[in-house]
Design brief:
Rossmann fold; transferase; 14 strands; 481 residues; globular; alpha/beta; restriction system; 18 helices; DNA binding
């Protein structure tokens, strides 16, 4: 028989003792009260105790020391999945974080700061990056600030379960009251990384217009969109050799007025190194695509006066509720950034002068457009049939759609300008049989050409005439003249 009252009392004492003996958890566990039955019923408490009593959860029992931390991250993700839109307030998909960290390339000995730290995933990923690259993950100094007290507690616990006792995670509103200061000035860091809330309203414009830390040299953004206030705070918190990596909505790239002036200032100071356009549907609670900005206060000489635009909007794994970046998508973006060269229909290195001519508009498609060219409509082919050779061997169609498919499998050349479908293809359904193992996008394109050109307007006219004559014959038989 369970003595629930005694168990609840013992659990409260246990959490107090854990916090008392672990200073890094101060203020995290005291808010938990196992006596509140409407949050934790006797039945749920019994199930909880029965489940955890089956396993001994000590570090020496695990295959690696940070297993509890990994399990906790998994639970955070599951909670974010079930929380829907609210999940985005504290959790950024791990693939996006992995990409952002890889672009920033943190190294041992660095100081890393996340001003909107959420559950702490970005800070944890910087440690993982070091581990994967043969550096000591413990040799990082981690700092963060979080406004939501419940999320702050989750972050503190995340750090603790990953064995990070020294992480300096503060509570508070970063824009109105930054907590990482020293001698009345902002502390500076080697890498500043964040996914701030998109287009935050009531972010504190009035207070920041009178900022005492000099964080907004390019001006403050509108009161209903705090995106570029976070970006400027991050720039101000970065040391002279440091880098910023931040997730932003696309609006910051082209919105006018004060936001245009801020973009102009950042570009004139030659801080922006790359803009990465991400696929839509990656983030919780919003289907809109986002972008990554990498800002570098010490750009390499060959990158000065330039910005690299990477348009990765088409490269992802489609999911039922949420899309996902694959390993190859992340690797391609990082490789393109490292090479810093043009990639057809994917990336473009653009000089400052061109961006200035475009009125400091950073819209990615303006520079690196992945959209197909306008479709050709060949009047002769529509009237008389035949698939135009110039349409089949269009550079975009050959590279992006047919992707190496041999057109001679389905087409015969009728003259120098037109193809015809092979005689063996009498119906559209037979295209799949003849095309064999071709990709779905190839089949779709071939079927589109069939619908577009196979039955010409001239043939339709003849079919209408035949139908009219046949109908007149029926009418005559019925006695209608």
């Amino acid at each position: 028989m369970f003595n629930f009252a005694g168990i609840r009392k013992s659990l409260n004492k246990a959490t107090e003792a854990i916090e008392e003996h672990n200073s890094s958890l101060e203020g995290v566990l005291v808010t938990i009260d196992f006596n509140i039955k409407n949050k934790l019923s006797d039945a749920k408490l019994r199930d909880l105790l029965s489940h955890f009593s089956q396993h001994r959860l000590r570090n020496e029992d695990f295959e690696r020391p940070d297993m509890l931390g990994t399990a906790y991250e998994y639970l955070i993700k599951m909670f974010a999945d079930s929380a829907g839109k609210k999940g985005g307030e504290f959790y950024t998909p791990s693939e996006v974080v992995q990409l952002l960290v890889a672009l920033l390339e943190p190294h041992a000995g660095m100081r890393i700061y996340d001003p909107t730290t959420g559950s702490g995933g970005m800070l944890v990923q910087t440690r993982n990056y070091l581990k994967e690259h043969g550096e000591n993950p413990a040799n990082l100094s981690l700092f963060g600030q979080e406004m939501n007290l419940n999320t702050w507690a989750i972050c503190k616990m995340n750090m603790f379960l990953h064995g990070v006792q020294s992480a300096d995670i503060r509570k508070g509103d970063t824009l109105r009251e930054p907590k990482h200061t020293q001698g009345g000035e902002l502390m500076s860091f080697d890498r500043v990384i964040a996914n701030p809330p998109f287009s935050l309203k009531k972010w504190g414009k009035d207070e920041c217009d009178n900022d005492g830390f000099g964080r907004f040299p390019y001006g403050t953004p509108p009161k209903d969109a705090g995106d570029l206030a976070f970006v400027q705070h991050m720039i101000a918190s970065t040391n002279a050799e440091g880098m910023v990596g931040v997730v932003m909505p696309h609006g910051v790239l082209f919105r006018g007025s004060s936001e245009k002036a801020i973009r102009q200032g950042i570009l004139e100071d030659d801080l922006l190194e790359v803009v990465v356009g991400l696929p839509s549907g990656l983030f919780y609670g919003t289907g809109i695509p986002a972008c990554l900005l990498i800002i570098n206060k010490n750009k390499p000489a060959d990158r000065r006066g330039k910005v690299l635009f990477i348009n990765a909007e088409l490269e992802f794994e489609e999911g039922k509720n949420q899309n996902k970046l694959r390993e190859q998508d992340i690797s391609k973006i990082v490789e393109t950034f490292n090479n810093y060269v043009d990639v057809k229909r994917y990336a473009k290195v653009v000089k400052y002068s061109e961006i200035a001519e475009n009125d400091f508009n950073l819209n990615i498609r303006r520079y690196a457009d992945t959209s197909p060219p306008a479709e050709i409509f060949d009047v002769r082919a529509i009237l008389h049939g035949g698939v135009p050779i110039r349409e089949v061997h269009n550079e975009y169609i050959e590279e992006e759609v047919l992707a190496g498919f041999d057109a001679s499998l389905v087409f015969d050349k009728t003259d120098n300008d037109y193809y015809a479908f092979k005689p063996s293809i009498a119906r559209k359904e037979q295209i799949r049989e003849v095309a064999g193992e071709a990709e779905a996008k190839v089949i779709t394109q071939l079927e589109h050409w069939w619908d577009k050109y196979q039955v010409s307007l001239h043939e339709l006219d003849l079919q209408v005439l035949d139908a009219e004559q046949e109908m007149q014959g029926y009418l005559k038989e019925l006695g209608y003249e």
